[in-house]
Structures are given as C-alpha cells and as structure tokens.
Amino acid sequence: MGKNKQLQDYVLISGQTNPRNNKQKIIDQRGMLADRSNTLEFYKSTGNVTYIDRSGKNHTGHFGPRDNGYLLLSLLIQYPGKIYTADQTAEVLNKAREYSDSTPDRRARDTIQTIRKELGLVKDKVNDFFIVDKGFGLNCKVEIKP
Length: 146
Known about the structure:
Blueprint: H1 3-8, E1 25-27, E2 33-35, E3 39-43, E4 48-52, E5 58-62, H2 68-76, H3 86-92, H4 104-119, E6 130-131, E7 137-138, E8 141-145
Parallel strand pairs: 3-8
Antiparallel strand pairs: 1-2, 3-4, 4-5, 6-7
Helix pairs in contact: 3-4
C-alpha cells in the first residue's frame, strides 16, 4: 500500500478522530503517522494542559504558574513514570496555611484531584494518567511545549 493511500485512511485534522480505531492521529514532521492517545501536553509558558485520553478525546485545562496544579505537574513531567514521595511533592507545592492540619500526602492527593477536575476526569478511572499508589507519578506520554 502506498503512502498516499495510507494517509487517506486517516482524518488528519487536529482534534478529529480516525473512524476505524477512534484514536487521534497526526502527521509528524517526517510525514509519518503518530498515535497520540494517552499523551499529556504541558505548555509551560501559558499553563495550558491537554490530555488526550486512550479513546482520542481531548481534555483541556489551565493552571496559573503559582497554582499547585501547575507546580505539581511541572515536577511530575520531568520524569514520567518516576514515583515521587509525598514529601518530595510537598517541596514544590505552595506552603499549607498555618491553621491547616493537612499532611504532605493529603496535599498531593488534593492537588491531583484538582487537576482531574480541571481536565474533566474526576470519575474517569479508565483514562486516569496519575499513579497514586505508594507515591505519585504519571502513567502517560508527556510532551513539554514552550
């Protein structure tokens, strides 16, 4: 099968899906097809985040540079798959209020819940890209954008 025939089988407009397998496809710089499912795009300069779930659906959100969501994602995207302890995540999060009795573990879990909510993934266990068992990390591909 020729390259042109292969490319005709896919919808190539960003945000649309391939009707055959319902996964978002793009053409990379070499003209090859790339699977973008289970990918987190993090735009450092704007704080915009897009998660492309396993079915190809986009979930977008925005975090300010001082938001705990932005700070935690900035840490976790450095080494996707690495597990960080609660104390390691607490080092990058904003300080808890004086009257707060929350633990570092609780603060990390609350921040992850806030990120899930912003991206519309609160009750979506299938497309959850966070690791929260015995530490915290990401279980997805990561693209860091300027």
